[in-house]
């Protein structure tokens, strides 16, 4: 996974929270992120860890020269979001970990809000309302999910229990992170937050959102982004490849039986149909080959590992089917988006 060089922080007391920021070519955005962290209005000690994933811009120079108190891990090769966060969590000294994107900007009371909520609960994954940094519009207060693990923004401030907390700002006790095993490094990036939240729910741990405070997020600054642009769905092949593959992995690993036995074959059928229709509409067979057929090939190639890991994960199940499914909605989110925005642009 490449060599690592470390610049240790100047924290001498044990921090309450370790803020872990994965950075790759973050010039122009990570400064606002770090400044929002160091401007936090809280009465407890925290440390800041940044993993630079072999950036090719001047990120490392800025981090070393302007933020000497940051505990910096510099990787000499690009290892991806999952490995980056696992490395930071391994050396984190805090009782809690806050995973924070380099393009996220915390509200001044974000840390104190998360910490206060954490004191009221048994070990839980927590999140905050997410706002678009460009427009200031509320994006979600955590996410619900459809049966096929497509996130559905929760906009109800009264709803606390959610299916997923976005990894751009995710709070978790370090002990719970260790119990769950962190991010699967073979995911590389995309849907690792979905995996962690689904696993937590399966094992009986709450996944909750706090409806006040929040963070601003420069939506779509990583992997070319994905979402609605000019009222049209927009993504790219790489993001769709990782998304479809990793969502399928999460489904295999964390869906309890008999939910898995019913949903997963339906998921594969709809995935093939979606790929075929999209290729016809866009007159581009490469989309079907690279995204959808590629997903099926990887699932087949990884079938033994997936089923072995599924057995291990399901053996730790503590939640009932109703409890696991309580933050899922039945109507497919892709159909809702199709009706609203038309066929996606995939570049």
TrEMBL record:
<feature type="domain" description="Glycosyltransferase 2-like">
    <location>
        <begin position="18"/>
        <end position="135"/>
    </location>
</feature>
<dbReference type="GO" id="GO:0016757">
    <property type="term" value="F:glycosyltransferase activity"/>
</dbReference>
<keyword id="KW-0472">Membrane</keyword>
<keyword id="KW-1133">Transmembrane helix</keyword>
<comment type="similarity">
    <text>Belongs to the glycosyltransferase 2 family.</text>
</comment>
<protein>
    <submittedName>
        <fullName>GT2 family glycosyltransferase</fullName>
    </submittedName>
</protein>
<keyword id="KW-0808">Transferase</keyword>
<keyword id="KW-0328">Glycosyltransferase</keyword>
<keyword id="KW-0812">Transmembrane</keyword>
<dbReference type="InterPro" id="IPR029044">
    <property type="entry name" value="Nucleotide-diphossugar_trans"/>
</dbReference>
<feature type="transmembrane region" description="Helical">
    <location>
        <begin position="259"/>
        <end position="281"/>
    </location>
</feature>
<dbReference type="InterPro" id="IPR001173">
    <property type="entry name" value="Glyco_trans_2-like"/>
</dbReference>
<dbReference type="Pfam" id="PF00535">
    <property type="entry name" value="Glycos_transf_2"/>
</dbReference>
């Amino acid at each position: 996974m490449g060599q690592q060089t470390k610049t240790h922080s100047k924290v001498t007391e044990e921090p309450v929270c370790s803020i872990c920021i994965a950075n790759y070519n973050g010039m122009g955005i990570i400064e606002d992120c770090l400044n929002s962290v160091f401007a936090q209005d809280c009465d407890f000690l925290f440390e800041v860890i940044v993993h630079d994933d072999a950036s090719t811009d001047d990120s490392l120079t800025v981090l070393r020269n302007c933020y000497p108190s940051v505990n910096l891990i510099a990787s000499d090769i690009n290892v991806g979001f999952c490995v980056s966060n696992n490395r930071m969590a391994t050396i984190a000294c805090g009782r809690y970990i806050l995973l924070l994107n380099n393009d996220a900007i915390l509200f001044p009371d974000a840390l104190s809000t998360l910490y206060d909520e954490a004191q009221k609960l048994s070990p839980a994954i927590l999140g905050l309302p997410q706002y678009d940094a460009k427009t200031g519009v509320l994006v979600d207060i955590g996410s619900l999910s459809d049966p096929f693990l497509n996130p559905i923004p929760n906009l109800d401030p009264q709803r606390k229990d959610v299916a997923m907390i976005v990894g751009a700002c995710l709070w978790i006790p370090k002990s719970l992170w260790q119990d769950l095993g962190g991010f699967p490094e073979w995911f590389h990036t995309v849907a690792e937050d979905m995996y962690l939240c689904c696993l937590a729910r399966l094992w009986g741990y709450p996944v909750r959102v706090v409806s006040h405070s929040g963070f601003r997020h420069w939506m779509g600054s990583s992997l070319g982004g994905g979402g609605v642009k000019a009222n049209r769905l927009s993504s790219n092949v790489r993001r769709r490849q990782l998304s479809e593959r990793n969502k399928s992995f999460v489904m295999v690993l964390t869906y309890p039986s008999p939910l898995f036995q019913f949903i997963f074959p339906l998921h594969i059928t709809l995935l093939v149909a979606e790929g075929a229709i999209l290729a016809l509409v866009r007159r581009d067979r490469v989309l079907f080959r690279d995204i959808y057929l590629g997903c099926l090939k990887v699932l087949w190639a990884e079938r033994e590992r997936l089923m072995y890991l599924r057995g291990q994960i399901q053996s730790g199940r503590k939640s009932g089917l109703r409890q696991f499914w309580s933050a899922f909605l039945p109507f497919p989110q892709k159909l809702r988006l199709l009706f609203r925005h038309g066929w996606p642009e995939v570049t």
